[in-house]
Amino acid sequence: MNCFLCCNISFREEELQLSIFINNIKRIIRDKGNIINMILTPLIFIMFIMGNGNINKLNAAVIDKDNTSLSKMIVNMINSNVNLKDIKEEEINEKLLNEQIDYALVIDKGFTEKIIKGEDVKLRGYKIKETNISVPINIYINSFVSSIKNIAKSCGGDSKKFYKALEYYEDGSFKAEFKPLGNRKRVLTYSSLGFVVMGMLIFSLTSSNLSLEDKRNKTFYRVFSAPISTKSYMFQNTLSYYVLSIFQTIILFLFMIKVLGADFGPNIKSIFILFSAFSLVAVTLGFLISSISKDGRQAGAITSLVITPMCMLGGCFWPREIMPKFLIEISNFVPTTWVLKGAKKAFFSTGIWDIKYELLILLLFSAVFFLLGIIRKADIDK
Description:
It contains 16 helices and four strands. By secondary structure, the chain is mostly helical. A four-stranded mixed β-sheet has the order 2-1-3-4. It is elongated and about 90 Å long.
């Protein structure tokens, strides 16, 4: 008889724990505001980014200070593959930041002379480092410069022989054409991920305030009249938020792929795993905020103060490279930086091993947030 009662109590406890998990999911989904935060808000920004991306030829600029036959040849070859813009060197940064150009190349005076003499010389290229729009043109230019260096070495410093050999080379083998379209689409997809991250933070941090609502209407305390511990209750809450955050990621990714034609590259599984790890970070951060807040108003204020700076520093709205150096250093201490860093690697890699460092850091963030939240909640048991 005692054994039967023991089993019955255990079954009811498990049923209660499961009911907390299911009830939370139902409450969140029933709230239209949560659906807006979960799906509609990030989708509006994503559609704006993906829908307004110009997938035509790259816009580039070349500043030719050398003004030789070789430098003019470089300009002509670039011009055949991009929309060449006429700008001044001092305008490069402004034009890049305003997205009027994707890439700028400066050919310094004396470049041809140093090439012919066999000296190690490089062209100066400018780009937004957080994007990969300029990858094709970089490969194109580097390949050409490497080839002409080899030609110069074989000519032994003789300029006449060099230019003659260059003519044969130009007429023959170097007729390559890079194709930026795939990379451009992938960059638009990557740029949109910042708003996926923002949506995940908004949804997870606002949804986790349900526990404060439970406190206010005394539901929280009534639960503990049943045989369930504080930690178990918190775990069930956190699990329900995490499941919904994963669901949010799946819905957004599917919409981006099926409707907007997003290009996640060859490693979408790694990107999904990375965002699953960030879901845990967002949920545990929400748990921490709810644990240190006295009521919903305070939690809302803290959430507002956390989300915007975290997104700005992490590169959700713009490339981190355009920020001052001290802000870039500070951004290494927010999880949004690491999910987008990992995504950038995953877009152009073939395995999850390439993002192991970023995954580890995100898991450490989530562990710290969860432990701090548990410690703060411990006073309820007293």
